[in-house]
Design a protein that fits this description.
Structural class of chain B: mainly alpha
Shape of chain A: flat
Shape of chain B: elongated
Number of strands of chain B: 9
CATH topology of the largest domain in chain B: Sodium/glucose cotransporter
Oligomer: heterodimer
Order of helices and strands of chain A: HEEH
Number of helices of chain A: 2
Strand content of chain B: 5-15%
Strand order of the largest sheet of chain A: 1-2
Number of helices of chain B: 35
Number of strands of chain A: 2
Radius of gyration of chain A: 19 Å
Distance between the termini of chain A: 9 Å
Helix content of chain A: 40-55%
Largest sheet of chain A: 2 strands, antiparallel
Number of domains of chain B: 5
Radius of gyration of chain B: 53 Å
Largest sheet of chain B: 7 strands, mixed
CATH superfamily of the largest domain in chain B: Sodium/glucose cotransporter
Strand content of chain A: 5-15%
Distance between the termini of chain B: 142 Å
Chain lengths: ~80, ~900
């Protein structure tokens, strides 16, 4: 959840407007470089967080589909 | 130039490959050998159906025209997947628990399995999806025309649409799997996802490093406005587009299909949470370079929407152009196939089936007849949806107006968002609220965005667009109620989604949900807390198993129905057909819902089982029962605590009884001793007298005198015992009168004046007042005073014995303190001197039976007063008599 709020804040005005400058860095326009860097960082963050979440979510989620519907997992709340 | 024959051969070969993959995987799935399909990577790739030809070709066009703005279309889904995937997880959990077949099914199921809501959602989905399908057809046709310039657009579009319809019908309706899973289709989509990603990256790589000298070279000398776009980035339009794309990834029917319905394992979402954003990142990394290079190297007449294809062609890279064409073709076909499956499922389940079932009602039931009807209706629906897309393409003449349709469709499906989120997070959301919100949102969407997109050619004239209907400026579709100067998309989103959400909230608050709706609300909102296997309906029924079995056969087919009923019979521990319990009916309804949708399943099962949903009063009864149970449990725990307290009291009483028993034993032993002493004396003297031995007269007299004294002592002892027993049992009723305390004390002192004189005792008396009146029995008070005073004299071993009496009033009582200078009693003795036969540590002198003090205290208490042993500050003890004070007699 925190990563979502950080992500929204980073790519939305007014925060993103700070980088709205007509300059280049490493030969790339700063707004473009900024957006793609933040994007890559968000993906990296999500991938890092997915590890423990996946481990926690697997027992309940991997139960067979059907009438034995999976018992509700109590420890997979992403808010934790 | 690529020859048309080569292109057609490659295309055909690719299509054959897709058919082969789908066929192969379906065959494997039937034999349950699909473990590799159950991979999170395949799942993620199938979600990439989000990237249509609108992305593949259109994103470059958008970048060329509006700069960085195209990124928003991918930022929204990225944000949803990285941070909001638990919403998707909840949807997936609900989808699995309730056998949800589509987004219309989910919304209808949540709001009491309402068929009208299902129809409304289906209609909106059809209206929003049809132009989108037309857009895909257009992109395939245009890219084909680039290579084969003489190809007829309509003919090409027709064959493309027909081919897709054939594929979708073949692999999308092979079975009516419980959860509408299409393994073959998913595998083909995953393959297409890889092709389109590789194609776009290949073109991007060629453009960036083949034509230009790398990223730095591409962006060199680029004017900042090209990046910022015409409407400047990071403004209201940026926010709106991000919001719309975030909404679309949840609400688009095809996304719901791949993300929720086709999900085989909930945990796959965890991988998709980062892998799908990474896929989007890969798809977009070269968009800007392709657009910029295209703008530089391509003639100005060249359409930026087709740079991906035209740039390789311009540089004679035919194999790359062919690959790019396949990428675009993949993007278009995967979207069309999945959208057709998703929407046709809705159309057949929520529109065709209810009508068909009504028509079928009364005809002879044949095993699998409904199933066959369903398959036919689904196939016709697919053909209908694609036909509609084709007709739309034909009607629009392949105009550029189609390019904007992607965002229009996004706003259209965004109307589902309030009902969807409200449905899974807010128990108070009602079906009426959802219906009203959807209608209002849909009307505003159509009026402010969809109809104006035709530019005055359809329903709304150009004059109406410019001046408002009947010239009313306030009603201008793109400046409604004076909202001027705003981007038309932002304007439409604010009006449609805003009014939709507001209406949904207000109407939900004003209306009450039905019983089934409330029940479903609880099941959906608390899906993680509920067991998931509980019945999806509250029902009381007297259904016949035979009828239910026939119903199952009609929808699922004989074999599947047989398997299901055998399974349920085994669970019940019976053979043959299972008992038609509520659990069985609920399970059956759920299974059927997986094929025909919750609303139809509910309607059919209800009709056959003839069960009624439980009324509100019954639900209240159930709640009451639960409350009663809680109350009973509370009472039980209270009783248990009470029992424990009682047991504790009993233990204490028992302990006291033991002590009393011991005291009684001691008392009996004491009394035997006390009685025995005079008796022994009397016995021995009377024996001496009765003997023949001569005894002098003087001795005779002495002996008789002793016998007499001992007899009197015995009598006195017995009198005292009698007194004690009477006072302790409370049988004595003393006559209480008014007594003046000075008189009473003087009388007592007079009575024992002989004793005091003999012992030479000095008596000091102090009275606080001249007259102090008490309530007492005169004789008994006299007895008590005598007893205490004689004790003071009897046990006083001082050389100059002295007794002090102090009478005074305190509160409601008159206190008489009697103290002597004989040393008093010790603190330890004070605790026991009022017990029978206790004579304190000075008892050795044997001056009494030890009954005086217990009797005195009993008497005092019987008169409403008390007798206590007190200690002065100096530590000397004294006796205190307390009696109720009284006013002097009148």
């Amino acid at each position: 959840m925190a990563i979502l709020l950080v992500g929204i804040a980073m790519v939305m005005p007014p925060f993103a407007q700070v980088v709205l400058v007509d300059a280049s860095l490493f030969g790339l326009p700063i707004p473009l470089l900024y957006i793609f860097t933040v994007w890559a960082a968000l993906i990296f963050g999500a991938a890092v967080m997915a590890g423990p979440l996946s481990a926690a979510g697997t027992p309940a989620a991997s139960q067979p589909q059907g009438d034995g519907d999976p018992a509700p997992p109590t420890n997979t709340d992403p808010a934790n | 130039m690529i020859s048309v024959n080569v292109l057609l051969t490659v295309c055909l070969g690719y299509v054959v490959l897709l058919f082969a993959v789908a066929f192969f995987v379906d065959r494997r799935a039937q034999r349950s050998r699909t473990s590799w399909l159950h991979s999170p990577i395949v799942y993620t790739l199938s979600i990439s159906v989000y990237c249509t030809s609108w992305t593949f070709y259109g994103a470059v066009g958008s970048a060329a025209r509006n700069g960085l703005e195209f990124v928003t279309i991918y930022l929204g889904p990225t944000l949803v997947f990285i941070g909001w995937w638990w919403i998707l997880r909840k949807l997936v959990r609900i989808g699995r628990a309730h056998r949800i077949t589509s987004i219309a099914d989910l919304i209808s199921s949540r709001y009491g399995k309402s068929s009208s809501l299902a129809v409304l959602v289906t209609l909106i989905a059809v209206i929003a999806t049809t132009p989108y399908i037309a857009l895909q057809l257009q992109s395939v046709v245009r890219s084909y025309q680039i290579i084969s310039s003489d190809a007829d657009a309509i003919t090409t579009a027709f064959w493309v649409a027909a081919g897709m319809a054939l594929f979708t019908i073949l692999f999308g309706t092979r079975n009516l799997d419980a959860n509408e899973r299409h393994h073959g289709v998913v595998a083909a989509i995953a393959l297409e996802a890889i092709i389109k990603l590789l194609a776009l990256i290949a073109v991007g790589f060629f453009v960036t490093y083949g034509i230009s000298g790398g990223f730095t070279d591409v962006f060199e000398n680029v004017h900042p406005d090209v990046i910022r776009g015409s409407s400047d980035i990071f403004g209201p339009r940026w926010i709106t587009l991000t919001f719309l794309s975030a909404t679309a990834i949840i609400c688009l029917p095809r996304q719901f299909q791949v993300t929720v319905v086709e999900n085989v394992e909930e945990s796959h979402l965890t991988t998709a949470s980062w892998l799908f954003p990474l896929y989007l990142f890969g798809m977009t990394i070269f968009i800007m370079p392709i657009a910029l290079v295209g703008l530089q190297v391509m003639p100005t007449t060249s359409n930026p929407d087709l740079y991906v294809l035209t740039i390789p062609l311009a540089y004679d890279r035919h194999e790359l152009a062919l690959f790019a064409f396949l990428g675009g073709f993949s993007s278009a076909t995967s979207m069309v196939i999945v959208a057709a499956i998703a929407v046709s499922t809705m159309v057949s389940n929520h529109i065709v089936m209810p009508v068909a079932l009504r028509l079928l009602h009364g005809t002879r039931a044949v095993s699998g007849d409904v199933r066959n009807l369903l398959l036919v209706s689904r196939r016709i629906s697919i053909a209908f949806i694609l036909g509609l897309g084709f007709l739309y393409f034909q009607a629009s003449g392949g105009s550029d107006a189609l390019a904007a349709i992607g965002l229009i469709a996004f706003v259209g499906v965004a109307q589902f968002l309030p009902s969807l989120l409200g449905g899974i997070f807010w128990r108070g959301a009602t079906g009426t609220g959802a219906f009203a919100g959807l209608i209002v949102g849909f009307i505003f969407w159509a009026y402010t965005l969809f109809l104006p997109s035709f530019g005055g050619d359809f329903v709304l004239s150009a004059a109406t667009l410019a001046n408002g209907p009947w010239g009313i400026d306030m009603l201008r579709p793109q400046a409604l109620f004076g909202f001027k100067g705003m981007d038309s998309l932002v304007h439409a989103v604010i009006w449609s989604v805003g009014t939709n959400a507001l209406t949904f909230l207000i109407v939900s608050n004003l209306t009450n949900a039905g019983t089934l709706e409330r029940f479903q609300a609880a099941m959906f909102v608390d899906v993680f807390r509920s067991s998931g296997g509980v019945p999806s309906t509250v029902a009381t029924s007297t259904a016949d198993s035979e009828d239910l079995f026939i119903l199952a056969q009609r929808i699922l087919g004989t074999d599947a129905a047989r398997r299901l009923f055998d399974e349920m019979a085994i669970e019940q521990g019976t053979t043959g057909l299972p008992q038609a319990s509520d659990a069985v009916i609920a399970r059956l309804e759920r299974e059927l819902a997986g094929s025909i949708g919750a609303a139809s399943a509910h309607a059919m099962v209800s009709r056959i089982a003839g069960h009624e949903t439980v009324g509100m009063t019954d639900l209240i009864d159930i709640a009451d029962e639960a409350l009663q149970l809680v109350e009973t449990s509370r009472q039980l725990s209270e009783k248990s605590a009470q029992l424990e307290r009682t047991a504790h009291q009993l233990r204490e009483v028992n302990e006291r009884l033991r002590v009393l028993d011991a005291q009684k034993d001691e008392f009996l032993s004491q009394i035997s001793h006390e009685l025995r002493t005079p008796m022994t004396s009397i016995q021995s003297f009377s024996e001496t007298l009765a003997a023949d031995d001569p005894i002098s007269l003087a001795d005779q007299r002495r002996f008789v005198s002793i016998i007499h004294d001992e007899s009197r002592r015995l009598t006195r002892l017995l009198d005292e015992l009698l007194d004690i027993s009477r006072f302790e049992s409370g049988t004595v009723k003393l006559q209480i009168g008014l007594i003046e305390i000075k008189t009473a004390i003087t009388a007592a002192l007079d009575a024992m004046s002989g004793v005091t004189r003999n012992a030479n005792v000095l008596v000091n008396i102090e009275y606080e007042q001249d007259t102090l009146w008490v309530k007492a029995n005169e004789d008994r008070l006299h007895q008590v005073l005598l007893n205490i005073l004689s004790n003071a004299v009897k046990y006083n071993d001082s050389d100059q014995p002295e007794v002090r009496i102090n009478a005074y009033k305190k509160d409601e009582y008159v206190l008489i303190d009697i103290m002597d200078n004989g040393g008093g009693v010790s603190q330890e003795d004070a605790a026991t001197i009022f017990e029978k036969f206790s004579r304190g540590s000075k008892s050795a002198r044997g001056k009494g039976a030890g009954l005086g003090l217990p009797i005195s205290r009993s008497i005092m208490r019987a008169m409403g007063g008390d007798l206590t042993a007190e200690f002065s500050v100096a530590g000397t003890s004294y006796f205190r008599l307390r009696l109720p004070n009284s006013a002097p007699p009148a």
